[in-house]
């Protein structure tokens, strides 16, 4: 039976303040939890209903597993339709940038992305197209927000996320920058080269003025229809797809 302290701890992790305080975040769902169990992340504990436990296969012997009833699970789940599997995972230690690696690949920079679903989709998209690192502004939604984690469908276990003042990061990187802007060169006529920083802006305001000044190559996705704008996660997918296409064509 779950104690009040356990329920209080788990539910508190819906908030960034307490994730930071306890050094833990929530992962829900069979697939996502299995992804983290097979990753470099350290899983603190696992909560499962009897029915869901049968879907988890063999688990590490040292893993702390707590059996809960369906009614108890409803109290700790943040999902409308829980799958009966919830893990508490240790937040990763803070790491410095490996500039050598970043200079050899395309890296996404996110300027104040606010919607958890958008960030989660971007992380999932990045992994699909082989982008291993995402640099977020300090105003971007927390990648370990449960809604973000859920939207990544396990990709967060493999894509590294960093938070830093973007302007300083760009200045230190000395890499070419491509920014998603309404007025710019067509993405389909742009050579993204072998390595660059790809900057995507806020859902409502786009890339901030401070960061726009640091964009070497303003790039736009040509509009053919009448829609006023594209969702930032969709726009990021188009950018990642075009970069991947160029890489494949160039061998």
TrEMBL record:
This is RNA methyltransferase. Residues 26-95 form the RNA 2-O ribose methyltransferase substrate binding domain. GO terms for biological process: methylation. It comes from the Bacteria. The keyword tRNA processing does not apply. InterPro entries: Alpha/beta_knot_MTases, MRM3-like_sub_bind, Ribosomal_eL30-like_sf, rRNA_Methyltransferase, SpoU_MeTrfase, SpoU_subst-bd, tRNA_m1G_MTases_N. SUPFAM superfamilies: alpha/beta knot, L30e-like. Keywords: Methyltransferase, Transferase. CDD domains: SpoU-like_RNA-MTase. One of its GO terms (molecular function) is methyltransferase activity. The keyword Methyltransferase applies. Pfam families: MRM3-like_sub_bind, SpoU_methylase. Belongs to the class IV-like SAM-binding methyltransferase superfamily. RNA methyltransferase TrmH family.
